[in-house]
From TrEMBL:
Gene3D superfamilies: Golgi alpha-mannosidase II (2.60.40.1180). Residues 33-121 form the Glycosyl hydrolase family 30 beta sandwich domain. InterPro entries: GH30_C (IPR033452), Glyco_hydro_b (IPR013780). This is Glycosyl hydrolase family 30 beta sandwich domain-containing protein. It comes from Friedmanniomyces endolithicus. SUPFAM superfamilies: Glycosyl hydrolase domain. It holds the Pfam family Glyco_hydro_30C.
Length: 126
């Protein structure tokens, strides 16, 4: 009767909760041994963390708890970002690679975060 379970099993069928997909938005990209990086936002109802993996890639999961889209400027000072991929989790997407293209200039890029969603940015750095 609660939404606490990650996988509901009923006989031979099962249903995966949205909460499990949110975990995947973190742990498919922030791998064991990753170091947490400082990450902040001043936007109400938007939550951000950042992780640097041992191979130098960076994962930035962003949660938009609001009921409207936010456009955020992502500032990655001190990194050499070369490529950004985004994965969306919401009511119709389960850690789905988006076809967005991001222009990175001076360690910065702009991204839209859909309402009531989680978007994980996965960055290749030199």
């Amino acid at each position: 009767p609660t939404d606490a379970s990650l996988v509901a099993v009923n006989g031979t069928s099962y249903q995966v909760s949205a909460r499990l997909w949110a975990f995947a938005g973190y742990f498919r990209f922030a791998r064991p041994g990753a170091m947490r990086l400082a990450a902040t936002t001043s936007v109400m109802e938007v939550y951000v963390t950042a992780w640097e993996n041992t191979n130098g890639t960076i994962a930035i999961p962003v949660i938009n708890a609001a009921h409207y889209t936010y456009t955020l400027d992502m500032n990655l000072a001190g990194t050499n970002v070369t490529h950004v991929m985004a994965y969306l989790t919401d009511n119709t997407h389960n850690v789905t690679l988006t076809n967005e293209t991001f222009t990175v200039s001076g360690g910065k890029f702009t991204a839209e975060i859909e309402p009531r969603s989680m978007k994980t940015f996965f960055l290749d750095c030199n």
